[in-house]
Model the fold of this input.
Amino acid sequence: MAVSLSYDLLLLLVISSLDWSSTPGSAFLTDHNRMTSSAPVEPHFTECMSRDLETFRCWWSPGTFHNLSSPEELRVFYLKRNSPSSEWKECPEYSHLNRECFFDANHTSIWIPYCLQLRGQNNITYFNEDDCFSVENIVRPDPPVSLNWTLLIVSPSGLSYDVMVSWEPPPSADVSTGWMRIEYEIQYRERNATTWEALETQPHTQQTIYGLQAGTEYEVHIRTKMKGFPKFGDFSDSIFVKVTEIPLRESAVLLTLVLTFGVAGILILIMLIVVSHQQRLMMILLPPVPAPKIKGIDSELLKKGKLEELDFILNGGGLGGLPTYISDYYQDEPWVEFIEVDEEDADCGEKEDQKSSDTQRLLGLPQRSVGCFSADSHPDDDSGRASCYDTDLSEQDTHLLAASLLPGQPEDEEAFLHPDEKAPASETNKSPLIQTESEGKPTWINTDLYAQVSNVMPSGGVVLSPGQQLRIQENTEKESQKKGTLGEDTSKLNKPQFQLLVVDPDGSGYTSEITARQISTPPSSLVPGEGYQTIYPQPMETKPAAPSEPNQSPYILPDSPQTRLFAPVADYTVVQELDTHQSLLLNLPTQQPPPPCLPQHPLKAPVAIGYVTPDLLGNLSS
Amino acid sequence: LPGLDPLSAVWVGIICLVFSSRLSTMKAASICPNDQTGCHLLPLANLFDRVIQHSARMHGISDDLHSEFELYFLPSKNQIGRVSRNCHTSTILTPNGKENAQRIAREELAEIILKLLVAWRDPLWHFHQSMSQHDEFTNFSSNKSLEMSDMVHELRKGVLKVVEKMQMLGIISNSVGDTGSPEALLTSDSAEWRFMKDYDLLYCFRRDSNKIQNYLKILKCRIVPKHGC
Done:
């Protein structure tokens, strides 16, 4: 009891005095129990270690209660259990200074269990069963040597970099013969950090550390262990890794990034603008090709080639004709002559353009609603007539056409009244004129000085275009108004400033000069030879006027000066011959009484338009 | 062959000829254009490397199993445990150090390796059987024990091939037997390992696998030292 107590005290003293850090490596035996307990600690081995699998060392401590008079008192004995008849042997090499027992290669056997014991004086043996081991299990290789690092690559931003660390295997370990297979473990940390970063153990003598920050200094060290065995050796000496930052490069990278993104953003904006204003841009960049200017015709129809529709429109589409806007559209182009196809006669009448009316009459177009033909509808100028000759025209149209050659009828009183300011009396006077005509009525509105000779009758008569009729009608009206006052003939005669032409009612279109003379001389008192007067020698044939009132016959007979005066004459006549007096001889008119009944030939006038075909001529003549 | 154009057949034939010529050259010359010293040993060195890798893997598995067993059984401080018990392979005389391993004859070393591998064939199989029966062992351990026993078989075959190659090359004599004495030796010790506990068995095998690995390495560096020693 007393001995144990003294031993405890001694142990405490020893523990306090001993320098535990002197023992190499970690404790071979985890003798925490012994250290923490207050019980006396007997001499024991602290650690046995092999560095190269060929030799090994063992360290012991004397314990607490052992008499520390002489260090040599404790002796180390070992036992190799390779045979049943093995015996304890003493340590081959002592190092009392370190309390170390060194076993050299001759005394080291691998894969054979060793047991060690301490013996003190008086053969006191301190033996622990746990102190048996095999050498391969106690191997702790030396740390590697010749550590160095190389910069592997720096990131484009210059902020991080990779480093390759390489080293040499420990010289003590016989790696070359393959006796020892060593693995390495790298650990690194920032200079002032506390915890280490460990990479995976691997057997090669170099390893890459990724993702180190530029400008920071790193500390790196390596330790080794045997492959397949758990114990690590000590750490090697640390090396320091540092890469300085490259701010220029970083800023250049940032600049390029900013530029790239800016340019990309601008491009996207431009694209958006282009896409949103696609239509306008297309208009600006690629203006549309002007469409063909065909008045009244939809270019689309032409493109589509729908000629039937085109014809329909041009032919008046049921007397409808083309819209009137076309004239407005092309007013600034005087070279374009539009002959409008209108339903309303008013439109034709309203056409103030003398040209158009002239053209109409020149063309012999009937003033009737059949009407105003578009010049563009047919290629040649006489195209208007073609429609008049259109056999599809109804009878009514033919009536209209016929009537167009005759003086106006009461059906279109308004149109009739339009060109001149006539007194209502004249209307009544006109009415017989109008009534002389059988049907359907051309307007006498557009009376001009000129009228085209539609046809010349073999008898000598001339078929006039409607324009002439109107003029004649005017004169006639005036004359009829002032019938009673012959004395006023002069005034009447003075009025007409137009020229009268002797018209052969046969439709020949020509008048002879004799006729003209005849016409002209009696009215010499009437007409001081100012102009021509249209004289219809036989107005009957061409104009289906109803001579219900012969007195009021509109036609001026050659006998009467009135008739002579107001005989409708064509605008143009053909000179037959020159007489001795250097005067022109027109067609000799036939001395025929004026036909009382104009309506005898009422319907013989599909000729009404400019020219007369032989068929129609035959009709007229018959 | 139906559907095979004559042209493509010609191409195939040409390619086959080329490959066969290459293969034949490979067999004959075995990567050596001219008979340089040590060049003809390259296939042997490769064979050695593969065998050594195999043994290393075997040792790793045995180490893992041993560590796992330590969790279930007593955790020894220095992994010695009950060392008093001998392994059944203790009767096989093995070199206990590097110098000893380097000193003995190559044939002897090869034979020792084969003896060890043969000795562990049955015990490991039985170990695996007992492991699979116990419920407390995980599947991981069971798979490892099976793998271990398979690896012993394969490693033995590999070492035999190496020995054959060496004998063919004339490096070692033909005295290295295969089915001779190791079998006889094993039968005498057949009863011993049955009495060993699983844990001791694992410990012994771990030790012996390390021995095999080291011996193979030394053997390689003695025979083909220029190839990665």
The interface with chain A takes residues 52, 56, 59-60, 63, 67, 76-80, 83-84, 86, 90, 94, 96-99, 102, 207-208, 210-211, 213-214, 217-218, 220-221, 229 of chain B (CB under 8 Å). Chain B has a mean pLDDT of 77. The radius of gyration of chain B is 23 Å.
